[in-house]
Amino acid sequence: MPELPAAPRINPSILAADFANMQADLARIATADYVHVDVMDNHFVPNLTFGPQMVERVQATSPIPLDVHLMIADPDRWAPGYAELGAASVTFHLEAATEPVALARRLRAIGARAGVAVKPATPVEGLYDILDDFDQILVMTVEPGFGGQSFMPETMPKLRRLADEARRRGSAVWLQVDGGIAASTIEQAAEAGADTFVAGSAVFGAADPEAAIAGLRATAAQHRH
Ligand code: DX5
Ligand code: ZN
């Protein structure tokens, strides 16, 4: 019997949570797949969030595994530390890394899934020959730095090309989108080939985050690539 495709993954971003009530907000998203943790350094992006100490506490408190998104300069130096503290997945930006393949191998050696992210204007063709070195590719659907921005549909052709290429090569890499994902936009991202969806405002801004997660997952499943 052919294997059924995995259900689309929904990863709520705690950038939209209440930083003073993190434990309670983490409990509200226990039905999600991963908790998406946005680390920003006020250098790679013009905003500052938190670093390893905070991520370690989120790790200790979260009912679900961590999907860490590093929007920081010099990930070659800092990313392995997030894998060491137990994050299930660590994604760094291609634009910031000096040796992305070597860094991905180090992350995997520590036991994390290795992810690479591209900003909206960064081409994906350079990733085609190194797909096997990554467990996840994050196609940003907003300029990284802030939650609550509008989804950029112009990133979809690039995502579709990447998804087609990954399929052609028989790659198991997960394709993630992040930024402006909501009930009104998740359909086009799923159709273009995403299987993993980050949503901040659409989950934590909802009266019932669990219902929002279930709704996003169902819509994505109906519109698979
Ligand atoms: C933006 C972050 C996103 C952000 C998404 O730089 O990487 O993860 O939290 O927030 P929404 O879903 O509100 O666009
Ligand atoms: Zn993010």
CATH hierarchy, class: Alpha Beta
Estimate the strand proportion: 15-25%
What fold name goes in the CATH topology slot?
TIM Barrel
Bound molecules: D-xylitol-5-phosphate, zinc ion
What class do helices, strands and sheet pairing give?
A: alpha/beta
The largest pleated sheet is described as: 8 strands, parallel
The number of helices is 8
List the secondary-structure elements in sequence, H or E: EHEHEHEHEEHEHEHH
CATH architectural group: Alpha-Beta Barrel
Binding site for substrate: 13, 69, 145-148, 178-180, 200-201
Family: Belongs to the ribulose-phosphate 3-epimerase family.
Active site: 38, 178
EC number: 5.1.3.1
General description of the model:
By secondary structure, this protein is α/β, with parallel strands linked by helices. It has one domain (9-222): Aldolase class I (TIM Barrel), CATH 3.20.20. Helices cover 33% and strands 18% of the residues. The protein is built from 8 helices and 8 strands; from the N terminus they run βαβαβαβαββαβαβαα. It has helices at 22-27, 52-61, 75-84, 100-110, 156-168, 186-192, 201-204, 209-222; strands at 9-12, 35-40, 66-71, 89-93, 113-118, 136-140, 174-178, 196-199. It has an 8-stranded parallel β-sheet. Helix 6 (186-192) links the parallel strand 7 (174-178) and strand 8 (196-199). Helix 3 packs parallel to helix 4 (100-110), helix 5 (156-168) packs parallel to helix 6 and helix 6 (186-192) packs parallel to helix 8. It is globular. The two termini are 21 Å apart. The structure holds D-xylitol-5-phosphate and zinc ion. Residues 13, 15-16, 36, 38, 69, 142, 144-149, 178-181, 198-202 line the site of D-xylitol-5-phosphate. Zinc ion binds next to strand 2. Catalyzes the reversible epimerization of D-ribulose 5-phosphate to D-xylulose 5-phosphate. It is an enzyme of class 5 (isomerase). Substrate binds at residues 13, 69, 145-148, 178-180, 200-201. Keywords: Carbohydrate metabolism, Isomerase, Metal-binding. One of its GO terms (molecular function) is D-ribulose-phosphate 3-epimerase activity.
